[in-house]
Design a protein that fits this description.
The chain has 318 residues and is an alpha/beta fold. It is built from eleven helices and eleven strands. Helix 2 crosses helix 3. It starts with a strand and ends with a helix. Bound molecules: 6-O-phosphono-beta-D-fructofuranose. The site of 6-O-phosphono-beta-D-fructofuranose has 12 residues, from loops.
């Protein structure tokens, strides 16, 4: 059997650990394995590279992806998908393992619908893939953001200042919500929930009156841009807020234990599914057990936010 593996969309710490696990499990099971460079872009252009046990040596602990990645809008077109299918055929690929988040797994579903044998692995710092409690990269990104906001808190307290900290999450606020809880944010603003600037400005004043020495707003980029948000606070009530946009530093760095562990288990499971010819599924985790999510559900489903977490943050910052 000859299989291929690719990473697509935003890179996530732990992708390399997943590539290593997929590669070595495949070799152990007597399969031939190729890597596709630059995700779906490379797939459409036939950019394959042969992998062996040594080519994935010493990558378990590194961030980013050795296979490189890309955003590939062309892949969403009929022509793009046909190009990818053609290149899989030309390279005699029997099955494809796709590592990535929502957009990427929607792409896997397109291929699956065309009869291509595909298994997905849920990987994105946003942790927004339907049907899995965790995705590869979420824990590291969370820890990166938490570490940065802890430092911001020192300066916020020293100056008794309001801070608006923007974290990643173009469409979803799962990262912002979780990291907001872990840093004890005074307010968490996410795209899934409406927010009210006048109400927030009252809370800010009340918090300082109660003797708090800082007010930290954790804001998901998908809800608002931090500069605009801070401007709105100032325009309404003259509240001066400092702004920090954490940006891409969240996506880099060595994966945590959790991400290496998750990625390794996901990688092994994905190849086991290939061996069993169980295609059209994305490997994820539920209640500490590996789970298989139907690709159609991943493509169409919306992972709910944890409402309880959102509610408790309101009173934990009193
Ligand atoms: O990979 C997910 C993510 O990091 C989102 O949180 C963010 O909105 C987006 O990717 C940024 O995308 P790009 O790398 O294309 O700027």
């Amino acid at each position: 059997m000859r299989i291929a593996v690719l990473t697509s969309g935003g890179d996530a710490p732990g992708m390399n650990a997943a590539i290593r696990a997929v590669t070595r499990t495949a070799i152990y099971k007597g399969m031939e394995i190729l890597g596709v460079k630059r995700g779906y872009l490379g797939l459409m252009n036939g950019d394959f590279t042969k992998l062996n046990s040594r080519s994935v040596g010493s990558i378990l602990s590194t961030g980013g992806t050795i296979l490189l990645t890309a955003r590939a809008p062309e892949f969403k077109t009929k022509e793009g998908i046909q190009k990818a299918i053609q290149s899989l055929k030309e390279n005699s690929i029997d099955a494809l393992v796709v590592i990535g988040g929502n957009g990427t797994q929607t792409g896997s579903y397109y291929l699956h619908k065309e009869g291509i044998p595909v298994v997905g692995i849920a990987s994105t710092i946003d942790n927004d893939v339907f049907g899995t409690q965790r995705t590869i990269g979420f824990d590291t990104a969370l820890n990166n953001a938490v570490g940065a906001i802890d430092k911001i808190r020192d300066t916020a307290t020293s100056h008794q200042r309001v801070f608006v900290v923007e974290v990643m999450g173009r469409n979803r606020g799962i990262l912002a919500l979780n990291c907001g809880i872990a840093v004890g944010a005074d307010a968490i603003i996410i795209p899934e929930k409406t927010f009210n600037i006048p109400e927030l400005s009252i809370r800010i004043k009340e918090n300082f009156e109660r003797g708090k020495k800082h007010f930290i707003v954790v804001l998901a980029e998908g809800a608002a841009k931090a500069e605009k948000f801070a401007d709105a606070l100032f325009l309404l009530d003259g509240i001066k807020a400092s702004v920090s946009v954490l940006g891409y530093l969240q996506r880099g760095g060595n994966p945590t234990f959790e991400d290496r562990f998750l990625a390794t288990n996901f990688g092994v499971k994905a190849v086991e599914m290939v061996e069993k010819k169980k295609f059209g599924v994305v490997v994820g985790i539920q209640n500490n057990e590996m789970t298989l999510i139907d690709m159609k559900q991943v493509a169409n489903g919306v992972k709910p936010i944890n409402e309880k977490l959102f509610d408790v943050q309101k009173f934990l910052s009193i």
